[in-house]
Every structure is written in C-alpha cells, then in structure tokens.
Write a structure and sequence with these properties.
CATH class of the largest domain: Alpha Beta
CATH superfamily of the largest domain: Response regulator
Number of helices: 8
Largest sheet: 5 strands, parallel
Radius of gyration: 18 Å
Strand order of the largest sheet: 2-1-3-4-5
Helix content: 40-55%
CATH architecture of the largest domain: 3-Layer(aba) Sandwich
Order of helices and strands: EHEHEHEHEHEEEEHHHEE
Shape: elongated
Number of domains: 2
Structural class: alpha/beta
Strand content: 15-25%
Number of strands: 11
C-alpha cells in the first residue's frame, strides 16, 4: 500500500517514513502544502498523513482542494495537542481521522491500516480467501494454517489484491500502489512477483483476467 506524508518537520517526516516503511508501506514525502496538494492530485495513494500547520499552503486548504477535485483517498490529519477546533475543522473539511502531536508511531500505523481496510470494505484486520489468511497489520500470511514467508514486495502485492478480493486489479493499479514516487517502476516486475506468489501459494488463488490484470479468488471460485 502507498502512503503520502505531508509534513514540514524534516525529523518527524523522516521518522514517520521509517516507521511506515517498516510496516510495509511505500511512502512519498512532501515538505509543504503546495507539493502535497500536487502529489495528492496527480499520484495514487491508499492513504495520506497530512499535517495542518504547513508552509506555502495550510493543511486545511490542501484537504479542501483535494475533496473539491474529487480525490477520495482516506486522510489522517495531524493536529496540535489540545486544539479541538483543528480537529473539528479537519473532519468537517473531509478528514477521516486525526492524531494529536506528539503521537506514537505504532498508533499511526494502526490507524492507517484501519482507514485503508474500511475504505475497501473490510472491517476485520484479517482477510480470508479460502485456505489463505492475510494478517494486514501483522504482515503475516498463512496457507491452510501454515506460515508462508513473503518478501515485502510480495506481501504488498498480495495485500493489494486482497483489498480487491474477487475483483480484477490492473498492472497499472498495482504499480501505482506498490511503489513510491522515486522508485524505478517497471510493470514487468509485477509479472515476476505474481509468478513468485503463485509458486508459494498455488496457482488457483491468483487468477489472470485477460485484458484486466489479476484477481485473488478462493479455489472453488477460480476459473
């Protein structure tokens, strides 16, 4: 899953990026509101962490412009502790959740996982597909009760397919959601990762849909 962090405090932005990367996210950073607004309108994100006190363009204005332009990705705003008016204004502007500074990185990660799950219609932290169980927060996969070792990129791709369970996901969509902006994206890599996943999980679980991409389906639904 791919996340945008819009934060002008370089130290906090770096810590956030490190924590989210460790949690399995691909992360882009924007140091001010203008760049954040641009990235949010031109790139594809599963969620955004948006500070409200930004230079060049404040966070509320960024959020309002995203929503006005039809950008619907989940947004978690960062507010000053004890400033309840910021929280209310942010939620009224279209934010989905908020955290007050300072905050624990583990809570930020958990809230982002929850926002992304809800955005895809999954209330539970685990997604099941026949004998396959995907623990999104724990980045763990089991097949018929046995753990399956996946690389970070393999897990990201499987997670993306799981969030669209039963529906085709194009290579373009997978590429946009797996890689950060500064990564050398190659759609052929998607085929390689899918091939590795099929060897580890079994061919029937990941189905090729001609002209549309791939979809994750329970074995009985395959074909």
């Amino acid at each position: 899953m791919r996340v945008l962090v819009v934060e002008d405090n370089a130290a906090l932005a770096g810590q956030t990026r490190g924590a989210l990367t460790q949690a399995g996210f691909a992360v882009d950073l924007a140091p001010d509101g203008e760049e954040g607004q641009f990235l949010g309108e031109t790139e594809t994100y599963d969620a955004v962490v948006l500070d409200l006190g930004l230079p060049k363009l404040d966070g509320l204005s960024v959020l309002r412009r995203w929503r006005a332009s039809g950008r619907a990705m989940p947004v978690l705003i960062l507010t000053a502790r004890g400033t309840w008016t910021e929280k209310v204004e942010g939620l009224n502007a279209g934010a989905d959740d908020y955290l007050a500074k300072p905050f624990a990185m583990a809570e930020l990660v958990a809230r982002l996982h929850a926002l992304i799950r809800r955005a895809h219609g999954h209330a539970q932290p685990e997604i099941a597909c026949g004998p396959l169980r995907i623990d999104i927060a724990g980045q763990a996969v089991t097949l018929e009760g046995m753990p399956v070792r996946l690389t970070a990129m393999e897990f990201r791709l499987l997670e993306c397919l799981a969030h669209h369970l039963g529906r085709p996901v194009s290579k373009t969509h997978l590429t946009e959601h797996l890689y950060a902006q500064d990564f050398d994206r190659d759609s052929n890599t998607i085929e390689v990762i899918v091939g590795r996943l099929r060897r580890k999980l079994g061919d029937p679980l990941i189905e090729t849909v001609r002209g549309q991409g791939y979809r994750l389906v329970p074995p009985l639904a395959a074909g």
